[in-house]
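Summary of Year 1 activities. Much of the first year was spent building the evaluation harness for sequence design. The harness presents a backbone, in tokenized form, and records the residue chosen at every position. We chose the following record to illustrate the format because it has been used consistently in internal testing since the harness was completed.
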């Protein structure tokens, strides 16, 4: 029989942990995480500083946990594009749209991938780097699958993936206030689709049609 006291304690710990990560994430969108203090996070989450240390060890532990949670959300958002039943070109176009949505919904991921000049260091930086490599690899796999299906000419999938993701990041960065007129998300979405279309159309086999 489950102990009701233990269950309540576990639920309270889970709520506290989630609230700490929520506030750490919120504060990190307002300033660099390096400038966020443990006492700020604790006060915003309405827990003691000791509770934060007890759950996460130190500030780097909070940063890593918050980063992993955001990256989990990003990967979940992208998952439909990896459906093996989708034609590869359709999957690539869908991935671009979902990637835009993931960046818009997760400012920490957006800053890490698009706008921050400094790459996070330590375990959080390693976690982000590993997930980014996974994204490049997944997109390269889609491009290779499109080539194998005869939908595009054989090209270097890894280089094409690097180009596409770099283009997606650059186009999304135009949503920020720059010297140029900022774009809204609808404009960015249509730009991403146009860019992917132009690239993939250029890679289409001569005289061929999309056989994906």
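For this record, the design step produced the sequence shown next.
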């Amino acid at each position: 029989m489950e102990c009701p006291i233990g269950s309540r304690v576990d639920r309270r710990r889970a709520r506290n942990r989630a609230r700490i990560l929520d506030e750490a994430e919120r504060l990190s969108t307002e300033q660099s995480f390096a400038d966020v203090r443990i006492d700020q996070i604790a006060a915003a989450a309405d827990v003691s500083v000791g509770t934060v240390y007890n759950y996460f060890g130190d500030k780097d532990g909070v940063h890593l946990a918050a980063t992993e949670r955001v990256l989990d959300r990003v990967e979940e958002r992208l998952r439909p594009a990896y459906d093996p039943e989708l034609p590869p070109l359709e999957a690539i176009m869908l991935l671009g749209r979902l990637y835009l949505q993931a960046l818009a919904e997760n400012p920490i991921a957006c800053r890490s991938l698009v706008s921050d000049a400094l790459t996070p260091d330590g375990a959080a930086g390693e976690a982000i780097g590993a997930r980014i490599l996974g994204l490049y690899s997944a997109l390269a796999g889609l491009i290779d699958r499109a080539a194998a299906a005869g939908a595009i000419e054989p090209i270097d999938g890894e280089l094409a993936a690097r180009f596409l993701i770099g283009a997606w990041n650059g186009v999304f960065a135009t949503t920020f206030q720059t010297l140029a007129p900022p774009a809204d998300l609808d404009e960015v979405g249509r730009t991403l689709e146009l860019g992917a279309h132009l690239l993939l159309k250029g890679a289409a086999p001569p005289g061929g049609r999309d056989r994906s």
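Residues 4-30 form the longest helix (27 residues). Quantitative recovery figures across the full test set are reported in Table 2.
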